[in-house]
Amino acid sequence: MVLGCLPCCDRSGYQQIGSTAGPRFGVRHVQSILVFFGLAVAYSLRVNLSVAIVAMTDRNASNPDFPEFDWNEATKSYLLSSFFWGYVVTQVPGGYLSAIYGAKYILFFGILICSCLALLTPFCAITGGWKLVVVLRAVQGLCQGVIFPSTHTFLSKWAPAEERGRLVGYCYSGSQFGTVVMLSVSGYIASSSLGWPSTFYVPGCVGILWALVWLYFSSSTPAQHSTITLSERRYIESSGQTRRPSDAGRNEHQAARPPTPWCRILTSGPFLVLLLAHCANNWGFWTLLTQIPTFMKNVLGMDIKSNGPLSALPYFAMILLNCVFIWLSDALKNRGTSIPLAFSRKFFNTLGMWLPMLALIGLGYITEGDANVRLAIGLLTAAVGTNAATYLGFHVNHIDLSPNFAGTLMGITNCAANFMSILAPLIVGLVVWDETNPEQWRIVFFFTAFVYFIGNLLFVLFGRFRVQAWDRPTTPRTPSPQSEAITGEDREPLIEA
Prior knowledge:
The chain is mainly alpha-helical. The protein contains 17 helices and two strands. Helix 6 packs antiparallel against helix 11. It is globular and about 60 Å long.
């Protein structure tokens, strides 16, 4: 919110953030709820195999009336990783296509096709074996690779600048919600009369249902929505420091979409800093989720992977703490404290990356013992949970830098970050020769903490939060001294966290 002494519009004609108020609950919130459940469905389709594969390879672990497969550990690794082979391929195309054809349809087809393929998974496993399942999972990854970039494109159109961090945080917490639900109930479903095939049928059917609801109720932009009120549309379209009040309500088809400035994006300093922050976060986050369970099993003697609810605990903590961080952001606003946008992004990003860094350092000094097992679970849960603060940090920065190309930026950074997710376990394998040696694990934890530290430090020192010049190429004009004084680069926009 702009400080009370500032006028509604500055002398350059651009509307200041917080100068208007939209309805407390409107169409934009309905769209956000749909995105939340869409991401929940997407992640349930992503993680279902990690639980189902236990029942598929061990008849005694679930309903014994269904086929059992003799898959060794190497085969399982192919099955579990094949999703990401396709996932990294469609990141950049997903952002580009969603900007051209609309995020509504890219999300619709991405989740619909992925859900239909989930229904075919048991048939493929029984008739074609693990090789056919690998191909199917890779295609599912191709479908889901478009989801995050399309979501960013969608939110760049629907989230007012004043509510951007809040809506992005709530929407993306759907991914953790879907993971929690799937990890918690898959074991019970597989043991029921429906057997392990139901772990694919249930999320597949839910995904198809979501796609139909999404197709009917969603629109790619406020201008295309049939029931949105004029006041809410004006509030959304005129919010942000780069829109004039006269732009609100203008038909988007009247203005041609500028071509994607690939060279300027890839050579933009603020974007490269965002890319490094995203990569550092994924390195740390996936090291926590994939390697800490191995550390706890071999060093501390506890296998949390065999416990579905315990495996879901870090994700559940992430959902709760995401709400806490959003509440903290709103609390600053309710106290009448308007903070610079740069401070807000850097503050929450620091919480989301440096608190997990401290937890990793603590994990490096844990040794065997029942009390230490509980401490390790607590540190793991705290590390993953506090990472939710990054939804109010670098996760929103794509939209800050370029509302027009937010999906493309997310596609590029998420593609690179997912390569870090693949690379991190390989580096761990080179460092940890003896999985029971805590000294070797300490090297892994300290190095990952260092990655977290450097990633956030770069974001704090060199991150930028103004819309970049390449976002919307305009005809150069000579600004007046008064407008330069108000809209200059040294003037940080004020926003409600």
